[in-house]
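Bit of a strange request maybe. I'm writing a small parser for structure token strings and I need a real example to test against, not something I typed by hand. Could someone generate the tokens for this chain?
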Amino acid sequence: MTNKTNEIERRFREEWFHFNSIVFFLLLCVISIGLLVMKKTFVIDGLAAFEILNDRGESGVINLIFGLQYFSVPIFYLWKFSVTTVFIWISSFFFGYRLLYKQIWKLVMLMELIFIFPEIIKIFWFIGDTSNVDYWEIKAFYPLSVLSFLDFETIAERWHYPLKAINLFEILYWFLLLFGIHALANKKIKIARWIVILGYIIPFFLWLILFAIIYK
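Reply from user aminoacidic:
Good idea to test on real output. This should exercise your parser:
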């Protein structure tokens, strides 16, 4: 088992990790924008309330919101990857891992692919069956999140985002970061675990707490 794990880590360093960062970033943006277009076309446009607004010519606000989302995708990714990379780089430096900033950026960007799957699930969850749901129900839904197992209407809205952010895919992301850092640095898994905890997981929960506090 250990030999097989070592082989996977070696191939990750020498083969899988050698991709063009700019091309991959643009591809990630295209995929995300494509999913937004699919959600708008096959889910939001099918809502009864949206159809009424569209018939009245009053759907411009929602169209504007989605239009802004399309343009904000690369900005959001640049911000997310930069902040995450800085925290993990500081944490790795603290523990003596000599990882380059660009290596961590590339790793963070690669592991972001895990968050494509819940967006696909969300689209297919509601596609063709929007007669009994409204926009707020769709907005509150995130597959396999804490909020998805609760009645969002009974929970204060300030907690919707934090409870959506805590989900199975987020936890898988932690393990992917752990594997990536361990494979790139080629050192003890225990140290890589602490790098992820201090460099990502703790800041992640602090951000959720801050969001809930300042939300109005």
